[in-house]
Amino acid sequence: MHVKQDQRGFGFFLVLVFLLVGCDDQGTKKAVFAFEMTGQTMGTSFSIKASVLPDEVNADQLNIDVKELLELVNDQMSTYRPQSELSLINNSDSVEWQPVSEALYSVLAEAKRISDLTEGAFDITVGPLVNLWGFGPDPLSFQAPSNEAILLAMQRIGYRHLKLRTEPLSIKKNHSDLYIDLSAIAKGYGVDQVGLLLEKRGIEDYLVEIGGELRLRGRKPDGNSWRIAIEKPSSEQRMIQKIVSITDMSVATSGDYRNFFEVEGVRFSHTIDPRTGKSINHNLASVTVLSETAMQADAWATAFMVLGAEDGLRLAEQQHLPVLFITKTAQGFSETSTPAFRDYFKEEQ
User: In which residues is Mg(2+) bound (predicted)?
Assistant: First the structure.
């Protein structure tokens, strides 16, 4: 049995991002940012860079404000904090309407919208299946679960079992053990909230990143667009697939090449298809999504990774989304992108 599990994919992606944004377009001079901040949140790292800081903005106070905001998001949406708003809902046996905050409702509503558009390929209730396959908090067993175990777990999931109501803002679980996990969308929401905080302070040129989800506005200190690198989706070596310039957009990348296990030559990805209960089995290696909000990019990247290149491309074009698909081929890797992606991105030669 061959086993490989590696969570470092986003880390390398971000190293490349910051190597690129830290230099001018000739790569000869390190950019000087007016404000920089790094730390830990949502079980991962975050980084913020601002090219210009208004005179009235105090950097120390901004640092405090960002930390408080990220704590609030965790208190609302973390599944690791027992007293978070989401954990209290998950641990409740109630099948009646439960009041929720505006923030949590907005994320749940967006998740439901994308679940509807993808016909369940994106599903925030998939947690029991992820745990069953060994990619959740439970120890990895390095073996595929039985069909009987999969069918049993699937009885506990299904985004349609979660009802939303606007007046008043509330949600309802159709069965008591429905479990909601926002890990595929909450980081993007957190990125957006930090970005909005910066904008309220008059900061127009910035980069915000949480766990690989990016929101970029304005320009770098040298006046040029932000430049990011998309990693070649190989588990054997780390190389750049594409370098692109971007501004006033959010970006999320998802892939199956850093977190998987193999049993007798069969590879099992950490990405689980909620519609089948099984690990995805197609040739899509990674997908990069652009969107106005990081929350949308975050969720769509996961959804397209489940759908695969063919169905994903069809839906992305229907929704006029800028998306880059990188697929595995016998010769290596092949790129396919939507017209909207080609319009937004300018590849660096």
Answer: 184, 298, 302
- Taken in order 66, 68, 73, 79, the sign of the CA dihedral is positive
Single pTM value for the model: 0.87
3-state helix, strand, coil in the chain (%, to 5): 35, 25, 40
For the beta carbon of residue 221, count every other beta carbon within 10 angstroms.
18
Position 260 in a domain: no
Calculate ∠ Cα 256-259-265, nearest 5°.
85
Fill in the amino acid letter for 194. Answer: V
Asked if residues 212 and 42 have their Cβ atoms less than 8 Å apart, the reply is no
In this structure, the number of other CB atoms found within 10 A of the CB of residue 84 comes to 18
pLDDT in tens, 97-129: 999 999 999 999 999 999 999 999 999 999 888
How many domains does the chain contain in total? Answer: 1
User: Other C-beta atoms within 10 Å of 33: how many?
Assistant: 20
Helix (H) or strand (E) holding 182: none
- Reported as a single tens digit per residue, the pLDDT across 268-310 is 456 788 998 887 777 898 899 999 999 999 999 999 999 999 9
Q: Report whether 324 contacts 344 (CB < 8 A).
A: no
Range of the domain at 132: 93-173
In a domain, 128, yes or no: yes
Is 298 annotated for ligand binding? Answer: yes
What CATH number does residue 149 fall under? 1.10.3980.10
* 9 in a structural domain: no
Confirm or deny that 184 is annotated as ligand binding. Answer: yes
> How many other CB atoms are found less than 10 A from the CB of residue 143?
13
Q: Terminal CA-to-CA distance of the chain, rounded, Å?
A: 42
Judge whether 68 lies within some domain.
no
